Amino acid sequence: MAKKEEKNSIIEICPIRNVVARFGNKWALLVIFVLNENNPSRFNQLAKLIPDISTKVLSNTLHTLEADGLVKRTVFPQVPIKVEYELTETGKSLVPIILSLTEWAQKNMKTIMKHRKNFTSSSK
């Protein structure tokens, strides 16, 4: 039983599993990138700027980013209710890393796609 507890504690303190995995999914990096360009933004504005994301996934992504302190949600007491999302300082600190990753992806995409094609062809 002690082994299982020890294993869980290692997982909990692992930065990749505990932190990076939370914003490293398909949509979170894009939401952060779009918020950086359009800060602050309302939900519908984000949905229009990322047209292929469902409202449920956008809502869940914003919720996760807010829970991790990367996005701040502000509710304005008016009718109808106005809600805006913006990057926190922690969220803003992630932007240069996303930009570097994007640059790397653009630089290496052709090579990666070639390898994927060759791998798929050789796997058959």
Automatic annotation (TrEMBL):
<dbReference type="GO" id="GO:0003677">
    <property type="term" value="F:DNA binding"/>
</dbReference>
<dbReference type="InterPro" id="IPR036388">
    <property type="entry name" value="WH-like_DNA-bd_sf"/>
</dbReference>
<dbReference type="InterPro" id="IPR036390">
    <property type="entry name" value="WH_DNA-bd_sf"/>
</dbReference>
<dbReference type="InterPro" id="IPR002577">
    <property type="entry name" value="HTH_HxlR"/>
</dbReference>
<feature type="domain" description="HTH hxlR-type">
    <location>
        <begin position="14"/>
        <end position="113"/>
    </location>
</feature>
<keyword id="KW-0804">Transcription</keyword>
<keyword id="KW-0805">Transcription regulation</keyword>
<dbReference type="Pfam" id="PF01638">
    <property type="entry name" value="HxlR"/>
</dbReference>
<keyword id="KW-0238">DNA-binding</keyword>
<protein>
    <submittedName>
        <fullName>Helix-turn-helix transcriptional regulator</fullName>
    </submittedName>
</protein>
